[in-house]
Write a structure and sequence with these properties.
Elements (H helix, E strand, L loop, with lengths): L1 H14 L2 H16 L3 H9 L14 H13 L1 H15 L8 H21 L4 H26 L1 H4 L1 H6 L5 H28 L13 H25 L3 H15 L6 H5 L3 H6 L7 H14 L5 H25 L3 H4 L1
Length: about 325
């Protein structure tokens, strides 16, 4: 019996030789699958050669590209700016000319009252005040509305795929339209009070002066708009600051009236030179009234313009991409 069993087993081993090879193959495969801890730690310790994707969101190239794309979308901000004025005076008979009437009434009231209080001739004083108020409205709106330019357009910034500068162009365009409506008051004053008789060829300098004014309105809106979006306390501070500037800037009072008194009172008129808005007012009001112009006003305004735009470009480069997250 035992011999028969051994012969059967040898016969099976001879008939199926793949059993031993299969077992050996399985054993070798299992050995290959087993990884020693040292090999695992070595594999984990090997550094992964991955480089971060370079971002150019905070570059001057992207900042200038934003200005270029925003200006290219002028059909958008031109229509939006005009729509702002139409929406404000919707269903009114006179429409946007209520801007002119409100400014004219303000200039007339201040001119009549303060000409009597300051003992000034109404013929000279009222045109002086009227032009001062027209220019001051642009300065005041550039500061206050500029600080709110991105916050007020939160919905468009989050939903409309456009350049950030579109909203600044829209604001400046709207202020230009306001100024054009108020300029009607100047032409009325020009004829009624005989200001046209004093004008000479230097009145043409009012055109580049206005260009500088609105160029400064752009950088003011960019700088104050970006930082007011990040720090919401800046807007109320600017509201108090503009009120103080209105009092310190010779809009309702004249430096000539103080200088003519001489002595210590005349010396105090020089304090107005410290206020930057005084120089913006002078480069526009003097040529429109036919008065003498001084070069140092242009130098100061030009210097402020250059410095302001450098700050605005840096702010656009550094924080442009963060504004949508701040609004």
């Amino acid at each position: 019996m035992r011999s028969d069993d051994s012969s059967d087993e040898s016969a099976r081993s001879e008939d199926d030789p793949s059993d031993d090879s299969a077992v050996r193959a399985d054993d070798s495969a299992a050995e290959e699958d087993q990884v020693t801890p040292s090999e695992t730690s070595t594999a984990r310790a090997e550094p992964v050669d991955t480089e971060p994707f370079p971002s150019d969101s905070q570059t001057y190239r992207r900042a200038f590209k934003d200005f270029r794309i925003g200006f290219g979308q002028r059909e958008l901000w031109l229509s939006l700016g005009w729509q702002d004025i139409k929406q404000r005076y919707r269903r009114s008979v006179l429409g946007p000319f209520w801007i002119t009437i409100a400014t004219g009434v303000q200039a007339a009231a201040i001119g009549l009252l303060y000409s009597a209080l300051l003992n000034q001739q109404i013929k000279d004083y009222l045109p002086y005040v009227a032009i001062g108020i027209i220019v001051w409205n642009v300065i005041n709106a550039s500061i206050l509305e500029g600080a709110d330019v991105f916050i007020a357009n939160e919905g468009l910034i989050k939903q409309l795929p456009s350049a950030l500068s579109v909203h600044v162009y829209r604001l400046v365009w709207r202020q230009l339209l306001f100024f054009a409506h108020n300029l009607v008051i100047y032409f009325v004053v020009l004829v009624v009070f005989g200001v046209w008789e004093k004008l000479h060829w230097t009145a043409i300098f009012a055109i580049p002066a206005l260009g500088l004014l609105f160029l400064n309105a752009m950088w003011v809106s960019i700088v104050f708009g970006i930082f007011s979006t990040r720090y919401r306390d800046i807007a109320p501070i600017l509201g108090s600051l503009t009120l103080m500037l209105f009092v310190l800037t010779p809009v309702m009072w004249s430096t000539k009236s103080l200088t003519s008194q001489g002595g210590a009172v005349g010396d105090r008129a020089k304090l107005a030179e410290i206020v930057p808005t005084f120089h913006y007012l002078e480069i526009i009001r003097a040529p429109l009234l036919g008065e003498d112009q001084h070069l140092y006003h242009w130098v100061i305004v030009g210097s402020i313009t250059v410095v302001g735009w450098l700050v605005a470009i840096f702010a656009m480069k550094q924080f442009r991409s963060r504004v949508p997250y701040w609004v």
